[in-house]
């Protein structure tokens, strides 16, 4: 039986080892299951305190994807069977996923993420947690939650709000597919290599003079990646996000009704913007409101507070939002004809958004109460 996630160690000339995690469900684009997340949590918690492990690498099997998100079917079936109730499945999955994402952010040792191919949703949560985030000419990076009645979670409340101008809001509403240059511009990626450089990279990493000093190891890896990136910078594609930053900021200016009107009446010949427009306008009206609520968090909250806020919203979405209908239309029946709870953005009742953004827990009994900065 094939393991859904594979753990290996790579020996190095220094005597230190590199821990390698391979997401291994190629046919499902390496989508995360609860068992995979639990296994990674256990292994990386062990590696974090293992003095022989100098660095950790996360990669996906196959050439199509690093990770296309979370496998949410189990949450869907449990939520359908228990309408208007927060299920153990939803709470368990999101809690475990956010705990693992947070572990990556706080890991201390270098975490290199090979972000080749599709990196979406939960996959982007993993990537954002890495210290060294590599994008390639095949990278396609997006937060497509607006299409399933969710919102950009997995730490999106933290990293989207720290992007240039209104880029974060634009990415959340439109599920725009970023290329390598876009990802570098918004700092989701911090190094660029071509997809055929993975083996040479691992070979070079095996020859580095790793030690038990994390700061030294971070610098070693950064220097290597900077050197390897240099020859490829000339081949980088254009970044639409950077090139059209001013127009994006204007398009995203104002309150939710202003932005909806601006997107609805947008007349553009830019194909990438047409796709973004179409996706946003077909998305869940509830998701629109949640994405705006998320944007209003600004940069005040710590990473831990962002994950705590997201956990409440995510489980609420499964019990009383558009999530189940979005998953049904996209993943279960695949008719791509979701019947959202509200006909349009203007029809959404504020009381529903207040319910969705009110945590089911208080500070003492919150499942992520132990998150510390």
Protein described:
With 373 residues, the protein is α/β, with parallel strands linked by helices. 46% of the residues lie in helices and 11% in strands. It has 17 helices and 9 strands. Strands 1-2-3-5-7-9 form a 6-stranded mixed β-sheet, with helices on both faces. A 3-stranded parallel β-sheet has the order 4-6-8. β2, α1 and β3 form a beta-alpha-beta unit. The longest helix is centred in the first third of the chain and has 18 residues. It is globular. It starts with a strand and ends in a 17-residue tail after the last helix. The model has no long low-confidence stretch (mean pLDDT 96).
Query: What structural category do the secondary elements indicate?
Result: alpha/beta
As a percent range, the share of helical residues equals: 40-55%
Radius of gyration: 20 Å
- Unreliable stretches (pLDDT < 50, length at least 5) are none
Number of strands: 9
Beta percentage is 5-15%
Mean pLDDT comes to 96
Distance between the termini: 39 Å
CATH superfamily caption: 2-enoyl-CoA Hydratase, Chain A, domain 1
Kindly provide the name of the CATH class. Answer: Alpha Beta
CATH architecture: Alpha-Beta Complex
**Total count of helical runs of at least 4 residues:** 17
Catalytic activity: 3-hydroxy-2-methylpropanoyl-CoA + H2O = 3-hydroxy-2-methylpropanoate + CoA + H(+)
Pfam family, one: ECH_2
InterPro entries: ClpP/crotonase-like_dom_sf, ECH_dom, HIBYL-CoA-H
EC number: 3.1.2.4
């Amino acid at each position: 039986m094939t393991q859904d996630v594979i753990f290996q160690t790579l020996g190095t000339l220094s005597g230190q080892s590199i821990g390698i995690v391979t997401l291994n469900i190629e046919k499902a684009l390496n989508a995360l299951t609860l068992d995979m997340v639990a296994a990674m949590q256990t292994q990386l918690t062990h590696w974090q305190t293992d003095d022989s492990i100098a660095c950790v690498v996360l990669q996906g099997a196959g050439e199509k994807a690093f990770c296309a998100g979370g496998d949410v079917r189990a949450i869907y079936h449990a939520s359908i069977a228990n309408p208007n109730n927060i299920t153990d499945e939803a709470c368990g999955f999101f809690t475990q996923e956010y705990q693992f994402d947070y572990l990556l952010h706080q890991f201390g040792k270098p975490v290199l993420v090979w972000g080749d191919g599709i990196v979406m949703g939960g996959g982007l949560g993993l990537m954002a947690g890495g210290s060294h985030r590599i994008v390639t000419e095949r990278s396609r990076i997006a937060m497509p939650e607006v299409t399933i009645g969710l919102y950009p979670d997995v730490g999106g409340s933290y990293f989207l709000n720290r992007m240039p101008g209104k880029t974060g809001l634009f990415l959340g509403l439109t599920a725009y597919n970023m290329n390598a240059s876009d990802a570098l511009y918004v700092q989701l990626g911090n190094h660029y290599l071509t997809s055929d450089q993975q083996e040479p990279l691992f070979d070079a990493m095996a020859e580095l003079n790793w030690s038990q000093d994390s700061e030294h190891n971070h610098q070693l890896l950064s220097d290597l990646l900077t050197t390897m990136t240099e020859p490829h910078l000339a081949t980088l594609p254009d970044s639409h996000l950077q090139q059209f930053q001013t127009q994006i900021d204007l398009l995203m200016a104002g309150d939710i009704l202003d932005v909806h009107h601006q997107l609805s009446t947008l007349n553009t010949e830019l194909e990438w913007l047409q796709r973004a427009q179409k996706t946003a306008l077909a998305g869940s009206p509830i998701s629109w409101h949640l994405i705006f609520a998320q944007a209003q968090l600004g940069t005040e909250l710590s990473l831990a507070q962002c994950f705590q806020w997201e956990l409440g919203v995510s489980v609420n979405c499964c019990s009383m939002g558009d999530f189940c209908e979005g998953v049904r239309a996209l993943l279960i029946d695949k008719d791509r004809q979701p019947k959202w709870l509200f006909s349009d953005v203007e029809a959404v009742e504020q009381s529903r958004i207040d319910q969705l953004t009110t945590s089911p827990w208080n500070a003492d009994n919150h499942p992520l109460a132990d998150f510390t900065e």
